[in-house]
């Protein structure tokens, strides 16, 4: 029995229970299926010249019920499959990850499974949860392949196994409050060590005291033309990069801040992101990214979009010192420049050619990589 079927049966039985006590369904159960595959070729530089195919199959089911006039409950479950190809890990050697489909290991697993209670101006969620569903997200940046435009590497590469994001999800709670028409606040507290890298297909839904917790809070300002996001995150248990910092780590926390902005100008949207992380605990302590995306570039291609962006992660001082002690000299940081065009074949099929230039992959002094790729997306 597949993970999605188990999830669907669970939601169905939950729905019967809710219906039996007089709680009405708001809408029909929604199923979503999407398959994405990236054919990538490193034509120069990096670790080696080679090609790889990276893919993801994502399935989800959602259900919604009305508890009272102003109170709904939403149930969500999802599962994913990945072939585990390691294009960045094995071929390019970059840390920001060329394809946001890459998981590093072959896996088939339950992804998210949560319940969300919704009021007029607020919501409260609990369960297996991807914080990048709601935090550190801009629509315009989702066009790009590189993982740093989804969630910054200052957050994504932090902690013992990263925060609760793709592909390792942890148990947690998340809250949202709409202060007024333009201002809102979010918070989340999740497992500080989500998933299990030794068993990538395992749910690993555990809450152990030694893992600590990861927390994040975000303020958002949105109107018709622009969005501002300001966020703060931290871990309660922090592992220093160097044993020399162990005494300091007792009192200090692994933490950081980020600022994101998006603005619409005609048929284009420009965006930027700035992020920080404590260099005592993280390889990269600063991040800067920006880009522009264009909707409907041609009158006869209203569903297409294209854009270019860059992402730069700066190496932290502690990481440089540790590398020097091991006889390696690191560069100032890693730079990724990306150009892409999303071609909509029809409402179910999309093709997306992509070009990326990676300089100083992994902050090492190695020849720059030029990566050519194309993404196939099938959804329904």
UniProtKB/TrEMBL annotation:
Source organism: Glaciecola petra
Which family does the record assign?
Answer: Belongs to the OprB family.
One Pfam entry for this protein is: OprB
Instruction: Output this protein's name.
Output: Carbohydrate porin
């Amino acid at each position: 029995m597949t993970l999605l079927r188990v999830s669907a049966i669970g939601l169905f039985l939950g729905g019967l229970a809710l219906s039996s006590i007089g709680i009405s369904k708001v809408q029909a159960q929604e199923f979503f299926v999407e398959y994405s595959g990236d054919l990538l070729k490193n034509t120069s530089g990096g670790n080696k010249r080679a090609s790889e195919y990276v893919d993801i199959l994502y399935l989800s089911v959602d259900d919604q019920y009305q508890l009272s006039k102003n109170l709904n409950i939403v149930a969500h479950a999802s599962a994913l499959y990945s072939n585990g190809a390691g294009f960045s890990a094995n071929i390019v050697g970059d840390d920001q990850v060329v394809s946001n489909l890459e998981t590093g290991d072959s896996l088939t697993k339950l992804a998210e499974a949560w319940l969300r209670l919704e009021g007029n101006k607020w919501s409260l969620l609990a369960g297996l949860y991807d914080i990048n569903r709601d935090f550190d997200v801009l629509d315009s940046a989702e066009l790009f392949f590189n993982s740093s435009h989804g969630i910054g590497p200052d957050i994504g590469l932090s902690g013992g196994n990263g925060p609760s994001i793709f592909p390792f999800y942890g148990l947690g709670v998340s809250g949202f409050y709409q202060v007024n028409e333009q201002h809102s606040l979010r918070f989340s507290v999740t497992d500080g060590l989500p998933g299990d890298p030794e068993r990538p297909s395992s749910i690993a839904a555990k809450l152990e005291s030694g893992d600590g917790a990861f927390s994040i809070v975000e303020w958002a300002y949105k109107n018709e033309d622009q969005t501002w996001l300001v966020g703060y995150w931290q871990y309660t248990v922090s592992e220093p990069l160097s044993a020399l910092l162990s005494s300091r780590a007792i009192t200090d926390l692994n933490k950081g801040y980020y600022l994101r902005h998006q603005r619409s100008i005609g048929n284009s949207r420009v965006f930027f992101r700035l992020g920080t992380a404590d260099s005592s605990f993280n390889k990269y302590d600063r991040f800067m990214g920006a880009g522009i995306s264009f909707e409907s570039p041609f009158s006869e291609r209203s569903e297409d979009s294209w854009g270019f962006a860059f992402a730069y992660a700066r190496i932290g001082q502690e990481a440089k010192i540790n590398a020097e002690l091991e006889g390696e000299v690191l560069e100032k940081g890693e730079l990724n420049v990306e150009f892409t065009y999303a071609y909509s074949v029809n409402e179910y099929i999309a093709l997306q050619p992509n070009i990326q230039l990676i300089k100083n992959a992994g902050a090492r002094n190695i020849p720059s990589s030029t990566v050519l790729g194309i993404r196939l997306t099938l959804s329904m």
